[in-house]
Amino acid sequence: MMFCEDPNKFFPYTQIDVVTFPNGKRKDPNNFTEVTFKGSVPQMIKQTMEYIKSNVLKEYVRKISGRQEANRFWNYPYDAIEEAVVNSVYHRDFMQHEPIEITIEPTGISILNCPGPDRSIPKEDIEKGDMLKSRRYRNRRLGDFLKELDLTEGRSTGVPTIQAKLAENGSSRAIFETTDDRMTFLVTIPVHEGCNESSEKLRSGSEISSERGSERDGLGSETSSERGSETRDLIIEIITQNPRVTTAEIAMQLSISSRGVEKQMRKLREAGVIRRVGGRYGGYWEITNKSNK
Known about the structure:
Layout lengths: L14 E6 L12 E6 L2 H15 L3 E4 L8 E4 L3 H13 L9 E6 L2 E6 L9 H6 L11 H9 L9 H12 L5 E4 L6 E6 L2 H11 L4 E3 L13 H18 L5 H8 L3 H13 L3 E4 L6 E4 L6
Parallel strand pairs: 1-5
Antiparallel strand pairs: 1-2, 3-4, 3-9, 5-6, 6-8, 7-8, 10-11
Helix pairs in contact: 1-2, 2-5, 7-9, 8-9
Pfam families: HATPase_c_4, HTH_24
InterPro entries: ArsR-like_HTH (IPR011991), RecG_C_sf (IPR038475), WH-like_DNA-bd_sf (IPR036388), WH_DNA-bd_sf (IPR036390)
C-alpha cells in the first residue's frame, strides 16, 4: 500500500472519491462533479490534498473599521482537512471493498470511511469529539510509515488536532459520527461562518473580499473576457486530445475550480462549439465548430 503503484489490484477500492455538489446535495443532487484518486497511500493523500487546495480552499479578508489590520480566515484550514484525510486512510479497513468518500458542499466537507471506530472507544466520546483514544490500532504498520512521512503522530492526536486547527481559524467544531454497528465513520468539517456572510457582502460591493479563488474560477475580475477566452481555448485543446475527459480532470489540468470549467464549457456549448454525445458514463465530447468560440 505504501510502495505499490496500484494496490487496488490486491485491495479493491483502495481509492479516494471526491464528489463536489456546488449547490448542495439536497438542493441540487444531480449537479455534481466527481474525481477519483488511486495509487499508493502517499500518492492518494498527496493528490487529494493538492486537488482540495487548488479547487476548494480560499482565504478571505475582512477589513474592520477603525483597525489597521484586516481579519483573515480560510473557508477550511488546510491542516484540519489534511489530518482528517490522513486519518481516514490510516484507520480504514482495506479488506472492506469500499472507497473513502469526500463530499464537498457549500456548507461543509464530509469524509466517510469504513468501518467506524473501534468498539473500545465509547460512543459518547465520539459524539463529544474531543479525543478518541483507542486501545487497539488498526493498520499499525501503515501508521508507522505515515509517521515517518510526518503525516500522523499515532497517539490519538488526530481529533484534537482537527479541532485545534479549526479553532485557530475561527471555524466551528468538527462533528464525528458513527453508526450503532460501527460500520461507518463520518467526519464533517463545517465551512467558516464568515464565508456565507462574505458571499452576500461581495455581491453588494462591501469591504469583504476573497484573495484566492476568483482566478481559479476561470474568470478574473479585471480581464474576464480575455481570461475566459484563454480558458476556453485550453479546454478545446484538452478535449481534442481526449474527447472522454471529465470536467474534474480538466479542472485538475488547468488548476482551476470545477465550477470555473463548467462555466466555460457551458458557454462553449451555448455557442455551438462543443456538444456532448452520450450520457455521463460512456459518453464523450465532440468539437463541432471552433470558429464560434
